[in-house]
What we know:
By secondary structure, this protein is an alpha/beta fold. The protein has a single domain, classed as Rossmann fold, CATH 3.40.50. The chain contains five helices and six strands, in the order E-E-H-E-E-H-E-H-E-H-H. The chain starts with a strand and ends in a 6-residue tail after the last helix.
Amino acid sequence: MAELLRFRDDEPVDHPAVTVDAFGGQANAAAVRVEPGDDARALIPHLAHIRLVEVNFPAFTDGRGYSAARILREAGYTGELRAVGDVLVDQLAFMRRCGFDAFEPDQPFDDGEVRAAMSRFPHAYQPAAAGAQPIWVLRHPPANG
């Protein structure tokens, strides 16, 4: 694995992640790993106790992890959400919009490419799990009064 890229201020979780199936039987687990076939909704009752959710991308073409991230963020998960595996720099901005705030790719990212990818589209048209306001809200803010 390459170096960890994080968009968080807290300390990274260093506990090994357990599988979603194993998580139910471990009262002290703080990190869970979601595989492409897992249902992230199984974690929703336990979100307050989870500090790290790793979402595995075995191939960059497998988009199921985007859905897992969005499900968890929309359910209120505020802990670290880390994309691991075959993560490409071109996907970073889209993954951030789904709620990922940390990345552990198989191949290291170039710092310049990361900066370029994150600044390429500073605004979006749709609301997102990341919480950024859509461009239309910025252009036409609601009237106060």
